[in-house]
Design a protein that fits this description.
Helix content is 92%, strand content 0%. The chain is mainly alpha-helical. The protein has one domain (1-26).
Amino acid sequence: MIGVQIKQRKLSDEVAEHLERMIRKG
């Protein structure tokens, strides 16, 4: 279960980073 939480957190961090780049380019 802990591994899954870490994976989800990593994924959400990557998504947030991607959105931030899109907004900056925007």
